[in-house]
Automatic annotation (TrEMBL), chains A, B:
Its cofactor is Zn(2+). Zn(2+) 2 binds at residues 64-65, 210, 268. HAMAP family: RNase_Z_BN. Pfam families: Anti-Pycsar_Apyc1. It comes from the Bacteria. This is Ribonuclease Z. Signal peptide: none annotated. It comes from Flavobacterium subsaxonicum WB 4.1-42 = DSM 21790. InterPro entries: RibonucZ/Hydroxyglut_hydro, RNase_Z/BN. Homodimer. Keywords: Endonuclease, Hydrolase, Metal-binding, Nuclease, tRNA processing, Zinc.
């Protein structure tokens, strides 16, 4: 599971920082999460192939999370893309995208599907044989969802020594990896657990930005391996949280602790701060395993 | 007259080049012309004060000329701007901007005025005591206008030696600078030309992008001091001009020659070319005074 941070700062793009966008590579799929202005240039800068992005998840329609979407969609068309593209996001994302295409008398060279969200309940928005993506309803100034990416358990791992010992034909290997027992020619039944090891644990990632502190998300993100949680402010500016509906680093860490998360990744820092290191120090007072997102940073989990 | 090129490349933004946007400083006014994605970051990078931009002229609604507008408008609001902002551009620019603000449940902290254009005839869109801005109807795949910025003639320059010689009271200086004659106490009438020098010549700038080759613009840009004219292609790719409705460098130079322009500035280069120098060489075969726009370049005229 590889997470590349393209941008993780709040509000306005600057010469040195970018608004929210990140790429999650999981089970060989590449998901783009949020798409602030400049995202397409950040993708180029970090040499992430446009053609691998088939699914874009938008949390909410504040500019620092989606003003780069129309540019990316247009660029895909200019490059002659043929593969389907799916956009998941709040109701309205389709209308504004199509209006912009109409005004420029442009169209896409590929099928563009919108999956508009309106529900305030968690729902599955994407599922294939390896990954399932669920919304995490957040509480912000506009309708907002985080996204929970869950790997499905993979095949069991073959115990090569054991299967060779029993002289089992390779034709049965897939059955064994899928959990099946084997009946030998002499009638003996070999239980699966003698022939396999447990599969690698299925990993999960939760993206939670932007939101005020809310424990309503805990059931959805319980035991998540990696939690990206917004921390716009430090506790010293906690008085701004309620009005702006954002969190402090300490609040993000509290959520991580209560969710029993593996790792907490902080992001969506207000640009008022000269350094982001204090966010980590503040979160560490509550939760042990804290990482700081930063533009261009790549995490492997 | 100072022209700062924020971006001058066609189609998609890249790590090394930016889509169209430029700032014209004329008679102490600062006009933003076009606003491709990333313009607000380019403004920051070149230390151009946001607060000095009160008028934005959009040529057409292709993404590489206006996808940065909503971000800039939003950033102005986040920074608490109070001064009026005027946006001039094709019909539709208001609808899409307001829709984006509505979807993000945002509003501006300042008065935002749209001056939407639909006419295919040249028209005055801006005028104050020092500058007049006129549209230049262009021929492109969508409704497009260039803009002609014309300084008004300033006051005549006082010939200090002459006015002191005639012992004229300073109370009459403004009348003299405005072109008036003076009657002395002894009844003699001193004609204005004895008391003043000609004012500095009024300068003009024409922005023409994007357009196919069209001589219909010549009456509007005749004798312009500086002509920025798009040159998406070289003659070797001239076959693309008709379909895409763009020009070659040679065609741009032909327009400059026929318009009797002072200086031709080339821009809007297709990103297919590794170097822009051949654009200059090609244009020089037709017209003598050719400059190459490039991102970050500042011209003083």
């Amino acid at each position: 599971m590889i997470l590349t941070i393209l941008g993780c700062y709040a509000a306005t793009p600057r010469t040195i920082t970018n608004p929210t966008s990140q790429v999650l590579e999981i089970k060989n799929r590449m998901f783009l999460i949020d798409c602030g202005e400049g995202t397409q240039v950040q993708l180029r800068k970090h040499k992430l192939k446009f053609s691998r992005i088939n699914h874009i998840f938008i949390s909410h329609l504040h500019g620092d999370h989606f003003y780069g979407l129309i540019g990316l969609i247009s660029t895909f068309a200019l490059l002659g893309r043929k593969t389907d593209l799916h956009v998941y996001g709040p109701k309205g994302v389709k209308e504004v995208t199509l209006l912009q295409l109409k005004l420029s008398n442009s169209w896409t060279t590929y099928n563009l599907y919108f999956h508009e969200l309106e529900s305030t309940e968690s729902q599955v928005v994407y599922e294939d044989d390896k990954v399932v993506v669920t919304t995490i309803p957040l509480k912000h100034r506009v309708y907002t969802n985080g996204y929970h990416f869950q790997e499905k358990s993979g095949d069991r791992k073959l115990n090569i020594e054991a299967v060779e010992n029993y002289e089992i034909d390779t034709a049965y290997y897939q059955k064994i990896k899928s959990g099946g027992d084997i009946t030998l020619d002499d009638g003996r039944v070999i239980p699966n657990e003698e022939l396999t090891f447990d599969p690698l644990p299925a990993k999960s990632y939760a993206f939670c930005s932007d939101t005020v502190y809310t424990e309503s998300i805990l059931p959805i993100i319980n035991n998540v391996d990696v939690l990206y949680h917004e921390s716009t402010f430090l506790q010293s500016e906690e008085q701004y949280c309620e009005k702006t509906m954002h969190c402090t680093a300490q609040q993000a860490a509290t959520i991580a602790k209560k969710a029993n998360a593996g790792t907490l990744v902080l992001g969506h820092y207000s640009t008022r701060y000269g350094s982001i290191e204090p966010f980590k120090q503040e979160a560490l007072t509550v939760f042990d395993n804290v990482e700081l997102a930063d533009d261009g940073k790549v995490f492997e989990f």
